[in-house]
Design a protein that fits this description.
By secondary structure, this protein is mostly helical. It is built from twelve helices and no strands. It is found in: Membrane. It comes from Cryomyces antarcticus. This is Amino acid permease.
């Protein structure tokens, strides 16, 4: 069930697609950017994980670490120095901090698009472009406020917060199958071919494998983390996914 770690290591391919309206020739550049992300993420994650595996001296200490993150324990075992472990953690947090800006930009663009199309409350405000900054400032600010409020869940219940965050991969993959499966069922007649169009049976095979993969692993991602199951160790991703979908 460790496929989720690999998925997060390589990265989600949808982030760059949300910036399609701001790129020149997006029909060609967006697929190229997604391909570049997947290839770069594959190699960097592979070498990084190999180094991590060889650095672990006591796997039990990593699993039972309760005073800090498992990664910090791995770095401590690798360097035998708290200062070295801290320095390596800083190298992790710096790109994460830069990634936050990209995430908010992506979320803001998505919310702005919905507001522009009249699909949100107060769509006139949400879908507006700031006259000075020339960007969807309101939508990005709203996303920041909502994310801050959701972060408060962690203070109240770590289990609820982990379930909420863990449901992300299920929601994202369900959005993929919602786009792929109807195209397969309608024999792809409503898809406008682009520069990287998969002709004939190739498109059906790739799309079919993708749909089966999503269905199988979304079920796996709803399994409990350990047996026997308690209220604290239960995986509530299925509850979060079903509840938010009905909401």
């Amino acid at each position: 069930a460790g496929t989720l770690n690999g998925a997060f290591a390589v990265g989600t391919p949808d982030c760059v697609s949300h910036l399609a309206e701001e790129l020149p020739n997006p029909r060609r550049n967006i697929p190229k950017a997604i391909l570049a992300q997947m290839v770069i993420g594959l190699f960097t994650a592979l070498f990084y994980m190999i180094a991590i595996f060889y650095s672990i001296q006591s796997f039990d200490d990593v699993l039972t670490n309760t005073y800090t993150s498992p990664l910090a324990e791995v770095y401590l075992q690798a360097t035998s120095s708290k200062g070295g472990a801290l320095g390596l953690l800083i190298l992790i947090y710096l790109p994460l901090t830069c990634g936050f800006f990209g995430n908010f930009i992506t979320c803001g663009r998505m919310l702005w698009t919905l507001g522009r199309d009249g699909a949100t409350p107060f769509s006139g405000t949400v879908g507006a472009i700031h006259p000075t900054h020339k960007n969807p400032f309101n939508a990005t600010l709203i996303c920041g406020i909502i994310c801050t409020i959701l972060g408060c869940i962690y203070v109240g219940s770590i289990t609820a917060f982990n379930a909420f965050v863990g449901s992300f991969v299920i929601f994202s993959t369900l959005s993929y199958i919602a786009a792929i499966l109807p195209n397969l069922l309608t024999k792809r007649r409503y898809v406008i071919p682009g520069p990287f169009w998969m002709p004939g049976w190739i498109g059906y095979v790739v799309g079919g494998i993708g749909c089966v993969y999503i269905v199988v692993f979304d079920v796996i991602y709803c399994f409990p983390y350990a047996m026997p199951v308690s209220a604290a160790s239960m995986n509530y991703s299925a509850l979060i996914t079903g509840g938010l979908t009905m909401f």
